[in-house]
Write a structure and sequence with these properties.
Neuraminidase, four-stranded antiparallel β-sheet, single chain, globular, 16% helix, alpha+beta
Amino acid sequence: MLEGQPCLISRALPSSCEQESKWIYMHYHLLEISSGGKGKRPAADDAARAKKKPLNHHDHDHDHDHHSNCLIPALGRDLSISCLIRCSRSDYGALAALSQSFRALVNSGDLYRFRRQNKIVEHWVYFSCSVLEWEAFDPGSKRWMHLPRMPLPNECFVCSDKESLAVGTDLLVFGREMNSQIVLRYSILSNAWTPGPKMNTPRCLFGSASLGAVAIVAGGCSPQGGLFASAELYDSETRTWVELPRLNTPRKMCSGVFMDGKFYVIGGTGAGGALSCGEEFDLREMRWRVIENMFPVGSGSSGAPPLLAVVKNELYAADYAENLVRRYVKGGNRWVTLGRLPERSASVNGWGLAFRACGDRLIVIGGRRTGGGGGSIEINAWVPGEGPPRWELVAAKASGGFVYNCAVMGC
């Protein structure tokens, strides 16, 4: 994300591609990044060369080429997209309102693919403090957004446990009927909920994590409580589920993370009770490796799944019983205590509290209920480094004081 003055974009609607270039003024830093210069605008011959030589991030179909060729004619199509992917995602709504060509580019999802290819990522937090209501928070601009209300499939969906997963530009919410699973998908491209693709083996209380455009779910149980050892990979580009090799130990109430390019499923409950072991999945070798005593056994089946988060390939855990933050030491397979969680991070055996990684920060989302069913939510953040945690109150608002689901979308 660029620092300094943001792009200034007129809200007027142009009538031609030539007019569009008059209403988009990019900060010279943004042009510097796209041209490789030192604070100067790209020369006309640079733009001409960009028009003649396509970049490797223009592998979409002819219709998209036609719509996006006239983005910023003074720069050419390639430099235009190089500039646009460096704009904040919060500006894409204004960009889409400029013209049909901008709208087609934004709605196609190509900008987010190009951002991913160029390792440009912004992290937004999505959470639910009411059964069918979701909110989003942009830590960069500190803006709150209310998502459209979830459609109500049936009453069982409201009453059942639900899991959430952010992957690519989608937010997936998993609920259940009496004997089957319901998946709802929210897309930031359409700002709408639609039915989502179901897993090959529907499950609940599973461990999951996402990495770019893919996600992995592992373990869980059936509506009747039967434990699963199966795992699946979800591709948000094709919206398909692929079965993976099975876990060594069936488990539910577990947590999942990506670390060092590998997927880990940690803790949970097995056939014999609480599990302290974790399992590591190597996506290249397509096999699981058991890690004994990776996570301390919790206080019982009533507690929430392990509250885990990975920042810069370091694994952290929130101990809700002791109100502490711990870090995993990979070489020694042990945990060290760093300090305390925010004071107002109340929970019910870990339920109602969100502990997530958001870019280079750890965030804790929680609050307190007040009389009459109301409450407030606070978002506290800390950038892990030397010394104990120093939590910063990033945002707060009136809301239900119990976090039912939470996911962080990076795109």
